Each structure stands twice: as structure tokens, then as C-alpha cells.
Amino acid sequence: MNTSPIAAADLVSTFDLTKRYGDHTAVSELNLRVPEGGIYGFLGPNGSGKSTTMKLLLGLISPDAGRILVLGREVDRRRPLPPGSIGSLIEGPSYYPNLTGKENLQMLADYLGVPGNRVDHVLAVVGLSEASSKRAKHYSLGMKQRLGLAMALLPEPRLLLLDEPTNGLDPAGVAEIRELIVALSREQGITTIVSSHILSEIEHMADTVGIILNGQLRYQGPLSGLHDEGTIEFRLSNPAAARVIFEAASVPYALEAGVVRVPMMEDTRAARLTADLFRNGQEIYRVQTVRKTLEQAFLELTDPATLAPPAPEKHTFFAPFTNAQPSSATRPSHTAVFGGTQ
Questions:
Q1: Is residue 2 part of a domain?
Q2: Under a CB-based contact definition with an 8 Å cutoff, are residues 45 and 216 in contact?
Q3: SUPFAM superfamilies from the entry (predicted)?
Q4: Does residue 206 form part of some domain?
């Protein structure tokens, strides 16, 4: 179990959050840290626990274990946040189909005690002013999503929770909703948690991401951290003979098709290693860095096979050749969990 420290600016924090349904564990020891400001992308395949987590954060369901802090307050079903504290769109918008978009918002405004002028404002923000007098049942899917966003924005929340907000939309609709979410974050400073099972959607929006698989948090940190981890490849005149040099330097390595691969390291350390190879008679034909693409990193993290308890070599960077572990300087700074929960 790995619990991330709480930052003063975290708007949402969970502590070993767990939810079970019978024998099925939907969320397992989840430790989310959502910083204030920006967009937090909550990524994972369908059925990975994203919607359950959203409902837990809202206090719609109670956890079996763990704690939740939202906006500095402890949350569960017995102690939900006051109405309007959080704007949410979970599993699609809820509305009265025979009422117009504006009438739906006016009813919600009355319930929340929100001034009536907010209705016209949020309609303009989501681009529904011209369609405000149309019955909601005649809205397109994209317009219904916009209506749901308008409802979520009505009480001027500090935090938005959006569960798969682009699900089912055509490419144009996806782009429109994505642009709207980004604009809300940048222009109004609303912290937003957006869940999705599609990497490309989150890639265009999020500052920070959490990746969940089978209820377990697999990665949490900046989006760029997903593909920071990579390797350095050495193409040498005698790769097999170079093994002694890498072992003497305590550098994990792998030999594949005449190329020696080592973990990413600082430039100065790589330069010393290159010089050692040259001094020991190696002709160096090429040295290059190879980084994972964002898609490769995401697919590896969401591969169910990686959830099984790994063999020892899984924890050694290139264990088939050496038992040396990467130094602290070569480990990525983000929080990533392989074969465990966080």
C-alpha cells in the first residue's frame, strides 16, 4: 500500500478508500490526490471503478473502508456535502424531458436557492442560449450533455465531477465538450475531475492524471510522467563483452539483437558509461534514447496481466541479466504502482 502525502492545495484526498459489492471489490485502497485548479483526468477501462469512485466522492454511496476529504470536509453518505458544493454529471444528465432547457434550470435554481440571473448566464456559458426555449427531449445528445453541464455549473461550484462526459458523442461533439471543459478550468478556475476510458480525450485536457484498473490506482501524477520513463540504447562492436562494464557500474541492462539497453539516467552518468565502454575497447556505433509513447505507457498500466503479483524480475529493470536495481536518480519521480495498490 502506498499513500501519497497530502498537499495543502489538494481539493480532494482519499485515504485507502475501498468499496465492495459482495465478493467484488470495486475500489481497493484508493489514495487520490486532486490538486486545486486545473483538470484531473481519471482514466481506466470500462468497469475499472471510475463511476464508483465518483459516487463515493459525492457521498451517494458509503465506503466499506477508508476516508474521503473534499473541500476540506469529511464525506460519506451520512455526511454529504451541502447541495451545490460540487457540480456533477454522473452517468448522463438528469432532466425533465417535457420542460425546456431553461425551465429545467429554473427549477434547479429554485431548489438550490440560486439567483435567477444565473440561469441565463450558465446557458450562455455552455452555448445553449438559442435553444433554451426548446424542450429538452428534442435536444441532441451533445445538447443534453451541455444541459447537464449547465446544471452542474448553476451553483458556482469550486469542484466539478464529470463522469465520461463525451460518451456517445460524435467527434464534433467530443471536441465541443472538451473545449468547454478546458475553458471552464482556465477562465473560471474550476477544479475539474473528468473520467474517461479514452486516452486521447484526457490527453487534450488534463494537467494531472490518475489511472485505475480493477479498482486499483496504477499511476498518479503529471501526464508527462507517463512517458518520462525510457531507455538508452548502445549499439556496440561486442555487446556481450560489455556486460562486465555495466555490471561494474551497477547499471541494469538487457541485451537484445546486438543492442544493449539500460534505464534512463542523467546525462553525466551516461557520458561516464560511454567513456568506460570506449576505454575498454568497445567501438560505439550509436547511442540513443528511446521513450515510451503515451499510448504504450497507458496500455501497459491498464493490462490486467500486470495486476498479478509479479515475479522478482518484474521489479528489476532488466532482471534476466543482472540483479542490480536502478539508482534513485534513475527512478521516475511520479507515483506509479506496478503489481500493487496505491
A1: no
A2: no
A3: P-loop containing nucleoside triphosphate hydrolases
A4: yes
